[in-house]
Specification:
The structure is a single chain. 9% of the residues lie in helices and 45% in strands. The protein has seven helices and 41 strands. Strands 4-31-32-41-34-35-36-37 form an eight-stranded antiparallel sheet, with no helix packed on it. Strands 11, 12, 13, 14, 15 and 19 form a six-stranded mixed sheet that branches. The relative contact order is 0.11. Keywords: Glycosidase, Hydrolase. InterPro entries: Glyco_hydro_43, Glyco_hydro_beta-prop_sf, Glycosyl_Hydrlase_43.
């Protein structure tokens, strides 16, 4: 029997950054979570069996938990950063960071000093845990002594659990250098282990980047594959230089034993384990390192494709082994819109989630035979991860064909176009139950803008709000037969009105396309066919929308469409 599925990238449209996933043996499905910054509800949980069809089943952060996490008091592009989702000792666990907490605002609005102190002692790093993906989620468990962002949680085969994350390098060699550190943690109390053994007596720095002047080594994840523990990190920052790197350490008897072996080897070479700060070790010695890099790094990037490539900023990956479909990774990427000028790329949708097949390969120099001698590799050595073998980049579509004798995976490109031809229709006044709010600002309910072009009817009562952040947004509303509008671009704002000239029962709509916000009206009744509406409509007003791009506004989020009553 032959079955074929087609996986289309991105798998989650609109702002779904920093994806992390697991294969859940109990539920026989993939479970995926993404970061949400200042949005509530937060940490949306999606499930899929085949990666082609995804269902939003719950949110780890509800309004009550958001308050305990101090989300109402974060600044723009603050809040929930880069979660890691894992099963730890039978529990669903999310390790995450709350960033950019405005302490003064928190205290002024009723947060207790004890709450704020607990969050600050953990630098915003916390754990949520649950017995079910549907919740309820317990926590937050603030990780006192954690430092940095992008925490990973890894349970090794010997039962040891490791907390790994990135922080600014203590003694940086260049601007933007970071370091990845790890320490064992007790998952019953969520406190760091302090037993005098490696990775159990203070933080241990295990990585600072792949090469000279490498910056922003972050988003670490540890995995056991065969006899090795692999470390994957993103590098270059989550922009046009973004990339994904792979490293590994030989650890057939556990990562703890491998660290002990590394320290013995360093001693035998007559070296000392470098000290970063009091009680902290560094496994990046002069002669040897604990983790060795894939010489073909990066294993994934689009930074070499140039500015003609519409899909940029690819990285921040997480691996998964599907029992039927094999190894895959999920990562973030940004679909850019070309600007007015050569080389100008603009992002409106934010960071979205993409997938790619992964194969494991050995360097021919490692396994080729020397005459009739034995292979240099061994059964417990899986080699190195290769993303989209033969294509070398993320694919637009991936066809997976399953037959009795195996699986064929074919990644392919459709076109170089970043946008969709037919406008998506987003009616913010349709009473959707999937809306989110920013922090605790309940006067506007939002949904992610998932595609460009997008057509948004202007409500007959209330307002349409198109938001990038609190200082970059546009508002459209009906006043009689006129459309009133306001655009806010930092300190600059403009307002005006235009006669709608609409037929009875027809609402004007805003088209977001080609770096413009255009007010369109037509004699059509209803907006079922958005393409016809745009094609037959009359443009009453068109304003430059580039101020809504990440490149102009700054920050880490994508645009949202909201309804303000």
């Amino acid at each position: 029997m032959t079955t074929t599925i087609t996986i289309a990238n991105p798998i989650l449209h609109g702002m779904h950054p920093d994806p992390s996933w697991i294969w859940d043996d109990d539920l026989r499905q993939i479970v995926l979570v993404t970061s949400t910054f200042e949005l509530v509800p937060g940490l949306p949980i999606y499930v899929s069996r085949d990666m082609a069809h995804w269902k939003h089943v719950s949110d780890a952060i509800d309004e009550e938990l958001a308050r305990r996490l101090l989300i109402p008091f974060v600044d723009d592009s603050g809040g929930v950063y880069a979660p890691t989702l894992r099963r730890i000792r039978g529990k669903y666990v999310i390790a995450c960071t709350i960033a950019r907490i405005n302490g003064r605002k928190a205290i002024a609005e009723g947060c207790s000093q004890a709450e704020l102190d607990a969050a600050q002692a953990a630098e915003g790093n916390f754990v949520l845990e649950s017995d079910s993906i549907d919740g309820p989620w317990r926590g937050p468990f603030w990780i006192e002594g954690a430092e940095g962002i992008d925490p990973d949680i890894f349970e090794d085969g010997d039962g040891n659990v490791y907390w790994t994350q990135t922080r600014p390098a203590v003694n940086p060699q260049w601007e933007g250098q970071t370091e990845v550190w790890t320490q064992r943690i007790n998952p019953e109390t969520w406190t760091f282990v302090d037993d005098g053994l490696p990775a159990g007596s203070g933080k241990t720095v295990i990585w600072r980047g792949y090469g000279m002047e490498s910056v922003w080594a972050e988003a670490p994840h540890l995995y056991r594959v065969g006899d090795y523990v692999y470390l994957m990190t993103a590098e270059g920052g989550t922009s046009f230089e973004h990339s994904e790197m792979a490293m590994r350490i030989y650890a057939p008897h556990g990562l703890l034993r491998a660290f002990e072996a590394y320290e013995r080897e360093v001693s035998e070479l007559g070296e000392c384990i470098p000290q970063v700060r009091d009680g902290e070790r560094c496994y990046l010695g002069t002669a040897i390192r604990a983790f060795h890099a894939d010489k073909k790094n990066p294993i994934l990037t689009h930074r070499h494709l140039g500015l003609s490539e519409p899909l940029q900023c690819v990285g921040h990956a997480d691996l998964l082994l599907h029992p039927e479909l094999g190894w895959w990774l999920v990562c973030l990427g940004v679909r850019e819109t070309r600007g007015k000028h050569d080389g100008e790329l603009l992002s409106y949708l934010g960071r979205e989630s993409f997938v790619a097949p992964v194969s494991w390969e050995h360097n021919p120099a490692d396994w080729k035979l020397d005459g009739n001698g034995a292979s240099y590799t061994h059964e417990g050595d899986p080699g190195w991860p290769v993303t989209c073998a033969g294509l070398g980049r993320l694919a637009d579509e991936i066809t997976v064909t399953t037959e009795d004798d195996g699986i064929a995976i074919e990644p392919r490109m459709k076109s170089s176009l970043a946008g969709d031809v037919e406008p998506a229709l987003v009616d913010v006044a349709d009473g959707s139950t999937n809306d989110v709010v920013v922090r605790d600002e309940r006067d506007v309910s939002y949904r992610r803008i998932a595609k460009l072009p997008t057509l948004m009817p202007i409500p007959m009562s209330g307002s349409l709000v198109i938001r990038q952040n609190s200082t970059h947004y546009a508002v459209f509303s009906m006043h009689g037969t006129d459309v009133r509008y306001e655009t806010v671009n930092g300190d600059d704002s403009q307002a005006g009105s235009v006669a709608a000239l609409r037929a009875d029962g027809t609402r004007p709509a805003v088209l977001f396309d080609d770096n413009r916000l255009s007010v369109i009206v037509t004699g059509m009744h209803g907006l079922v066919d958005s393409a016809t509406f745009v094609r037959q409509g009359q443009v009453l007003l068109s304003v430059d929308a580039r101020f809504l791009s990440t490149e102009w506004a700054g920050g880490f989020v994508g645009c949202m469409a909201g309804f303000m009553a």
